[in-house]
């Protein structure tokens, strides 16, 4: 009896040792997923946007989410048997077009998704996070620190009231901590449409010298035409930090 109990104890210890790492992966993936929300929705009431809703994507056949108009090659991949697992999704995110070409053995295959996530750990983290989005009302993934992934509680104000309440002092706009924090968000999120490599076509070239800080805040917080509103992704403080970076002398898309 001693030997089986010993093996069971070792197995249990190994399992428990893995759990915190998996939880942390999902928390990190939730942060990285902010790069994706311009095109993909998640949550119990997720809707199709530029890309399909990703609630419940793990375990789903490729090209099958109701109401989304997929490209022919993505539909063909699903018909061939492609199921989104954490592994296949991790591979896909590295280079969506090449993944489909390899899977279908078709050098002409393509996909609407042009975004590539090159960092191996980041791709695995995003897949781990999406595995928690199973279609139920999911609780937010916890983070080890209050500052990482934590959302600041927004006041019970209308969008217009929030925008009208913003004031930007020179001290705030020039504060190194604000500029640096805004720069980090910019290159994680905004540069995909507004950066130099995104031109031409994705978004207008920015002219920060002509913009008042309140104008920049309003565009980011509320959205405009094809630009999504980021008020549900970033806190008011984070959007203010984006403004500080855009208005800084060192701003570069």
TrEMBL record:
InterPro entries: Cyt_c-like_dom, Cyt_c-like_dom_sf, Cyt_c_1A/1B. This is Cytochrome c domain-containing protein. GO terms for molecular function: electron transfer activity; heme binding; metal ion binding. Residues 24-134, 177-250 form the Cytochrome c domain. It holds the Pfam family Cytochrome_CBB3. The keyword Amino-acid biosynthesis does not apply. Keywords: Electron transport, Heme, Iron, Metal-binding, Transport.
